[in-house]
Design brief:
mainly alpha; elongated; transmembrane; transport; membrane; AI-2E family transporter; AI-2E-like
């Protein structure tokens, strides 16, 4: 009896020792993971952007590296420099070019050179607000400063919002440039990183890990192509409208719309001043037409994003749509790429799980499971005889 008690006590002590040791290891690992997250969390958006840029540029990097005799470091450096030039050049050009039109608008307001056309008499017949709109429009056509002074308190929040948008545009551009530089380092070590990612994917899911990794890459490529395509579409439509309306600096503003679209700031910083210029320099039909054009540029990405992003993917459009919208709401610009990737992988995992369950419950397999071994063997013998 005493021997059995000693055995049980020894087993309990060994269990307690193992439990304590495992708990300590788990605590240390968890603390290191948390500490790592705290350290890299401020750079989370840039890391996501750098991964996206690296994945999008990898086909070009692969071709250039092969042309250079598998010199990956040189190829990554050339692509990084070219990408920086493509971003810094238009941004600098845009910043310098926009200053003069803004100065011109301010000088025109001070000198009274900016004239607002008189309002059509038909506006008076509009219900409820027609008379007030006509009176204010007429005041603006005769004394623009007085008209602006009346709405200056209401315009202050709008001005603060536009200034905030401008600051965010500058900060977003800087983050994007840093992400491009970081993506160059990722490209330089692309082969080692791919080996490690494939090994990690197989470690997580030996059967489907690499497939999900390929799906994530395909989703990022689709989103990247969609962002570029939408930005070009916005720049072309906006540039055509501004060219037809003879907007000053239309070429520079078109480039600005393209760059702001690529870095996911949005064209509102350009659209708002252009609409203001239209209503102070064009006739009413021209101002309405340019306003519709610029508002279409501003909001077309909200409508077309899910359809363009889902092109070429097996994931359904509603899943991509939810991923894009939910990702942006949850994680900002980085969520534009993270959301669709996460939901696409989850969709594929769920689809595979459901398909496996359906396949295991088909009538033939269900009958095979329920049939006794003798019946199965006899049916196989009969099939062989036939």
């Amino acid at each position: 009896m005493a021997d059995e008690t000693n055995i049980f006590n020894g087993a309990d002590r060994r269990f307690n020792a193992v439990f304590i040791e495992v708990s300590i290891r788990l605590f240390v690992i968890g603390f290191l993971v948390y500490w790592t997250f705290v350290i890299i969390q401020p750079f989370g958006a840039m890391i996501v952007w750098s991964v996206v840029v690296a994945v999008a540029l990898f086909p070009l990097f692969d071709k250039l590296s092969s042309w250079l005799g598998d010199r990956g470091t040189i190829a990554a450096a050339l692509i990084t420099v070219a990408a920086l030039i493509l971003v810094i050049g238009p941004v600098t050009w845009m910043g310098v070019g926009v200053i003069d039109p803004v100065k011109g608008v301010i000088a025109g307001l001070n000198n009274g050179d900016i004239a607002v056309p008189p309002p059509p008499e038909s506006i008076k017949s509009w219900p409820i607000v027609g008379a007030q709109i006509h009176a204010y429009w007429e005041l603006a056509s005769t004394n623009l400063k007085s008209a602006l002074a009346q709405i200056l308190p209401e315009l202050k929040p709008v001005g603060e919002y536009l200034l905030s948008m401008a600051r965010n545009a500058g900060l977003g551009t800087l983050k994007f440039l840093l992400s491009v530089i970081l993506s160059g380092f990722l490209l330089a070590y692309a082969s080692q990183l791919m080996i490690g990612m494939r090994a990690l994917a197989r470690r997580i899911d030996p059967a489907n890990g690499e497939k999900y990794l390929s799906l994530a890459g395909a989703t990022i490529n689709a989103v990247s192509r969609g962002v570029m395509g939408l930005s070009i579409m916005q720049a072309v439509i906006g540039g055509l409208g501004m060219y037809l309306a003879n907007v000053p600096g239309a070429n520079l503003l078109s480039v600005a719309i393209l760059v702001l679209g690529i870095i996911q700031i949005g064209p509102l910083v350009i659209v708002a001043p252009v609409v203001f210029w239209a209503w102070t320099n064009l006739s009413t039909p021209g101002a309405i037409g340019l306003t519709i054009c610029m508002l279409s540029v501003n909001y077309m990405d909200n409508v077309l994003k899910p359809f363009i992003f889902a092109h070429g993917l097996s994931t359904p459009i509603p899943i991509i749509f939810i991923g894009v919208i939910g990702g942006v709401l949850a994680h900002g610009v980085a969520g534009l790429f993270v959301g669709p990737v996460v939901l696409a992988v989850v969709w594929e995992v769920g689809s595979a799980w459901v398909a496996e369950e359906i396949a295991s419950t088909t009538p033939e397999k269900a009958a095979a499971k329920e049939a006794p071994p003798q019946l199965l063997s006899s049916s196989r013998s009969g099939a062989e005889a036939v």
